[in-house]
Amino acid sequence: MEMASTNKVLMVAEKPSIALSIASTLSHGRMSTRKGSTDVHEFDGSFLGFQAHYKVTSVIGHVFSVDFPAPYQNWAATDPLDLFQAPICKAETNPKAHICRHLSQEARGCGHLVLWLDCDREGENICFEVIECTGFHLNKGRRIYRARFSSVTEKDILGAMANLVEPNRHEALAVDARQEIDLKVGVAFTRFQTSYFQGKYGNLDSRVISYGPCQTPTLGFCVQRYFQINTFKPEKFWSLHPYIIYNGYELQLEWERKKLFDIDVVIMFQKLVMEDGITEVTEISEKQETKGRPPGLNTVNLLKVASSALGLGPQVAMQVAERLYTQGFISYPRTESTSYPSSFDFKGTLGVLAKNPTWGSYVQRLLADGYNKPRVGTDAGDHPPITPMLSATENELGKDAWRLYEYVCQHFIGTLSPDCKYLRTKVEFSIGGESFQCVGQHVTVKGFTAIMPWLAIPEKNLPQFTKGEKIEISKVDLFEGSTTPPDYLSESDLISLMEKNGIGTDASIPVHINNICERNFVQVQAGRKLVPTPLGITLIRGYQCIDPDLCLPDIRSFIEHQITLVAKGQADHIHVVQHVLLQFRQKYCYFVKQIENMNTLFEAQFSALADSGRNLSKCGKCLRYMKYISSQPPRLYCNTCEEEYYLPQKGSIKLYKELTCPLDNFELLIFSMPGPEGKSFPLCPYCYNSPPFEGIDTLYSAAKTTGSSKLGKGAGMPCFLCPHPTCQHSMIAQGVCACPECSGTLVLDPVSAPKWRLYCNICNCLVFLPQGAHRISTTQESCPECDSKIIEVDFNKKTTPLEDGATLYSGCILCDELLHSLVEMKHGKSFFKRMASRGRGRGRGGVYRGRGRGSTGKKVDPKMSFRDF
DNA sequence: GCAAGGTC
Q1: A11, A261, A531, A761: least buried by Cβ within 10 Å?
Q2: What stretches of A393-533 show up as alpha helix (H) in DSSP?
Q3: Compositionally biased, Gly residues: which spans (predicted)?
């Protein structure tokens, strides 16, 4: 029997594993599962008092991400300033997964939607993404519920079902606000500084000079430490080390004043002590001390241990943890919480480990003697602390995974172990009026340090002293020391600083650290210390002198604070975004205005393009400069792509302004053959080596066989053979008329001023245009008579043939009397007649088609070829 | 080619 749609309930979780847990719990394990974009679990049960058919599925994190619409994706055509007011669009984060379609399909026929997203702001935001995909908001008859749960346990799941609430739109909007602010601020600054500095310096070894409200303050921490180290001035200090010999052991006494920075004063005290020569035991105290077991393990603490003790970087550690999680060895590894939920099954988890060869006997004793309840940590309401789920051995896991798993187990067992207890004995001495002491430690209960031995309290034995006892001083050393600078920030230190300052989240902290490494702002050195590079240092110095806010952690707190107002419903989402963006826009404008100050720092650190000499033009793939190798065969080499691009031989090559090829983004070059009659032509290094249009090869091979154009080895298509319909350097744009000598086209030599001329793109026919003109350019018009391209001439004021000193003139070089009289043929015989006769009677586009005739015999239709672009 | 945040 078909169930009424109102009795169908769709439930959506944030990830597949949670959907599985919820379905298993609610169905008591009696469900059917089918595949989809994500698995769908189905079962029957009761919902709000009626019989219902349940479908439980999930998304995989955010369904959508924000970005700029297509026109704004073009770096060259967009002023980053405009990005602040640009519209933004949402697109599926992972289009291939088709999550939106999946939700829409599964929602069909359902009258109730229950949202089981994680209970944080991001989860609340995903709720509304899910609602959007399901179309539930469009129909008032369909009900939407939010399930609030803090752990995936039966108790919490049933509790959430019994207390369904509404999704919180304010919290979701706060996330929308953050997304828009982060996108606009990050992208605007990143594009501006990348474009500005990469155009100026050849040896910047970063593909993109990024800016972000999380990554930049993260870099700031590393550079701040670098500054501390660099400006550190060591200071000498002195201390007194008196020794006694007691029961045959030599013992050094610690001075109560520790150390002093004035040697004369220390020498004075040394005299007092030495003159006395006898010490008296003034006090003996004994105290029971406790070193507490750890609270539950959260992500940042796992990452800190992984980096400092296991030598695994945060990014790698998270990948390893992720794998351990998906394989079922540990619980979900992304959590802020260090408190276990009250319902946590400690006994069960200990039971899992009781058979493990590594900790089995310890765990069995713990179970037999009774384990301790874990210390109360913080409950962030997200996921439980990271704990083992299965027992494993080193062989099954492999080296790194094993070490991380081992730590998770040790930590977990540690949280249930007794505290470590030890006796601390302090003996105080007096010599010449100065106080000294000795401290001994004796462990009475190892507790958790038995399973986490690196945290053990060291044993320090002291002899038995008696109060009032007098002992002879054997010697008094004057110790000289020096203060030392701090070390570079370790990854572990950095993670602590980020956490303390609210930079990033458990999941994104490793990403930010990885970013500043990948962008070559810092390098990880021995001991996982983060050492800033010259680029990283120069950037932070630059922000500091223009607008220090840009690299301070407050920039993140500011954004967080503003969007919290939205989350609490105290401020309107649109207004907050506008307000924050306006402030950042002002900061951006000021930064742009002051960029010269940062540039001064770059000048001192990097070599300008002009000086380096070797870098010629930018690669269209990686946008970094390619090296020009002038030795035979001449070529460009892209260091990042590891690609070579051959160039024409026997001529000079220069950057052609800073123009780029519209097909592949490579910067154009201009090649000039030697001698007064040597022609010049633009070329794109990429197209030249890999002609993009079908059939072009027949043209340039025709050009080569004539022996007149020296294209060189591996050479191909200069712009004068390119049929691109709109590029201003192509044959279409620069071609004027058919060649009178061959099947080629006469094209304008773009850099032949003031001896303006046309040359044939196949043979060596040369035609001189009006000499001394300021400018000659082709237009988009064709001559109605002969179909040649109309050219525009800007004559020199002094030599203009025009009446009244006018300089501007346009016309056809064949049919216009004035222009034709100023045109002169070189290497050709009967320019006028041949041109006139050949040109006449041709249809539009004849210049182009004309080339197709003759030796090659093959027609090339650029419109056909353009399909692929 | 850009951010930061989810998750795989």
Answers
A1: A261
A2: 394-397, 399-416, 491-500, 509-518
A3: 844-855
